[in-house]
Amino acid sequence: MRSPGKIGAVGAAGISDDDLVQRFENAKQLLLFCSRRLRCVDGDEGRHWFYCSLCDMFSPIIKTLMNTPFLEECISVLTRTPQTLNTLLRDLPDVWTTATEGPGTWSPYMVIQHLIHGEKADWIPRLSIILHEGTKRPFDPFDRDALFQQTRSEPLSSLLDEFGALREANLSRLHDLNLQPEQMEWQGTHPALGLVTIRQLLATWTAHDLSHLTQVSRVMAKRFKHEVGSWSQYLSIMQ
Ligand code: NI
Fold first, then answer.
1. Is a pLDDT exceeding 50 seen at residue 223?
2. Domain boundary at 50, 65, 80, which?
3. Is 28 found in the same domain as 138?
4. Are residues 106 and 72 located together in one domain of the fold?
5. Residue 38 and residue 30: Cα distance in Å, rounded?
6. pTM of the model
7. Ligand 1 centre and the CA of 201: distance in Å?
8. Where residue 9 falls among pLDDT bands split at 50, 70, 90?
9. Which residues contact 82 (CB under 8 A, 6 or more apart)?
């Protein structure tokens, strides 16, 4: 294995255009097959060197390819959300999972219903519309209250299972799409917001998970707003 220091020397010595093109192609292959194992080890004008532990080799990556780490950042959170909610909520007494912040607000149970709806109707379907129809066809409106019109009676554990299975299937589809860096800027038409990009859609999918994790924690904490007494003023989540 060559050391990062030696790679710096290779870069300083310069390489032919043909060699650079070949290395660039190698880098793209690395990104396709080994993106979880890539580690940035050096950088210089317009290029970053990456080391892949699977291939035991280094490759230069032109900065325009740096979108793929963004995709990995999204996937690293999106993968964890079902297990985070599972750990937090499964088998909790119903008083925690059915609590709300008052009339018209959601309980943790309802948040899971909403996340299930998003997996079915929002993220991947909208990504698919952008990929296949671009800006021509606006996304179908996402009715965030529609699912609550049909009351679901199954236990929360079933909903957690369903959310986990849907998320796993959607991340598998995302992986199979093999999105290329330039596709991150492809645009679609949101019915209310107008033009949005694939990059923004994926970032929103990720931040939306984190937003609802915050919501679940807040709803649960507020059950004890009065129980904590004067300490309430020290807990920002109670405000
Ligand atoms: Ni939401």
1. yes
2. 65
3. no
4. yes
5. 8
6. 0.72
7. 13
8. very low
9. 160, 163, 164, 167, 168
How far is the centre of ligand 1, averaged over its atoms, from the C-alpha of 16 (Å)?
51
User: Domain limits at 10?
Assistant: 4-65
Q: Which of 28, 49, 65 is the last residue of a domain?
A: 65
CATH number for position 187: 1.20.120.450
Distance (angstroms) between ligand 1 centre and the Cα of 62 equals: 36
Q: What is the mean pLDDT of the chain?
A: 81
Q: How far is the CA of 154 from the centre of ligand 1 (A)?
A: 21
Expressed in angstroms and rounded, the spacing between residue 168 Cα and the centre of ligand 1 is 19
- Pair 57, 148 in one domain: no
pLDDT digits 0-9 by tens, 151-193: 678 999 999 999 999 999 999 999 999 898 889 999 999 999 9
Q: Which amino acid does the sequence have at 45?
A: E
Is 24 found in the same domain as 51?
Answer: yes
Span from the CA of 212 to the centroid of ligand 1 (angstroms): 7
Integer angstrom CA distances of residue 104 from 101, 117, 121, 149, 150: 8, 18, 22, 13, 16
pLDDT, position 16: 63
